[in-house]
Design a protein that fits this description.
By secondary structure, the chain is α+β, with helices and mostly antiparallel strands. It has one domain. Helix content is about 20%, strand content about 30%. It contains two helices and eight strands.
Length: about 150
């Protein structure tokens, strides 16, 4: 396995069923919430689709869960800055998709910043941007797998 996830790599993210805070139907249609990308370690997990045989079923944790996809290069284009107390940008975070295989899941990767986030607000901005990217992809390409509780 490579130490690098290519920019054109397709990534899968599990969206848990029954947690309506992960998505809602707004006036412009379905929108994913930043909660869909929340992570206590501030490094959301994704699966590298190629290493899952392009089978999103493998990414689901439960049979009713949904799966969305992202493109690694689009994730890396997320721009977020750390500002000083006066709101002036001090530095930009570099967002990357890093392979983090486990014994149970060799396709596991994480969306990680460099340097590490200095506060939860910055991570929340990244999670919001990830949700926006996934929502745009759903609107263009549809879900990889729709959650069972999503209305038709």
């Amino acid at each position: 396995m490579s130490d690098v996830v290519a920019d054109d790599e397709l990534l899968y993210r599990c969206i848990f069923c029954g947690l309506d805070k992960y998505y809602r139907i707004g006036e412009f249609g379905l929108e994913l919430s930043s909660q869909a990308f929340t992570d206590r370690n501030q490094a959301p997990s994704v699966d590298i689709a190629k290493l899952r045989g392009y089978d999103p079923q493998c990414t689901r944790k439960n049979p009713d869960d949904g799966v969305v996809s992202l493109i690694a290069g689009e994730v890396r284009m997320i721009n977020v800055s750390q500002n000083d107390p006066k709101g002036k940008p001090v530095f930009d975070y570099k967002i990357d998709v890093c392979p983090r295989p486990t014994d149970d899941n060799p396709s596991h990767a994480q969306i990680e910043p460099s340097p590490n986030y200095t506060n939860k607000g910055t991570f929340r901005k990244v999670a919001e941007k990830l949700a926006r990217l996934a929502t745009e992809r759903i609107k263009k390409e549809d879900w990889e797998i729709k959650p069972q509780d999503l209305p038709p």
